[in-house]
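Weekly structure sync, notes
Attendees: PL (lead), two postdocs, one rotation student
Agenda item 3: pending single-chain targets
PL asked that the sequence for the first pending target be pasted directly into the notes so everyone works from the same version. It is reproduced below exactly as submitted, 188 residues in total.
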Amino acid sequence: MFLARHGETEWSQNGRHTGRTDLPLLPVGEARAGSLGQRLQGIPFDAAFSSPLRRARDTARLAGFPGAVLTDLLREWDYGDYEGLTSVQIHETVPSWDLWADGCPGGETPTEVIARARRFLDQLPAAATRVIAFSHGHFIRAIALAFLGLPAAAGARLALDTAALSVLRAGDRGGVVQLWNDVGHLPV
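Predicted structure, written out during the meeting:
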């Protein structure tokens, strides 16, 4: 399974939590989505999926997957009351806040997000051997946790840049990370 994070938006550049707010890609985000497409060119996929949010949908299109199946299961974490805030701003009022332990008031808990990631994994076509999903930073981490059977707290240890490519695969003893947060296709 290939996982591609969307390109840059205004809020991803300045660290604001962007869950359900439907922001467009910045020009640099569009260019990086195109670079991602060049990296993926020639790889045969059995299925392609995308979050319906514009930043992910446009990344899929610019990367060469205009027909990616849109699914709400790939939406970003619902940050509730913390939507649009930075972690620094949240820590000013709740110093001990940890997204992967506490979730967001008025939004989703880590348990709910990882359960949604499991539902996405469970609905993949059984015959598909290579799929790609275009989604969001925290939700791609949740997919990895669900696939690998790791606890929610492990999500805090997984960095993920915009327009990054990650690859998970089935191994002899369960899920394996083959590639994580690869941005080698992006200009320096």
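Discussion points:
- Residues 73 and 120 are 6 Å apart (CA to CA).
- The mean pLDDT is 97.
Action: rotation student to compare against the earlier draft before next sync.
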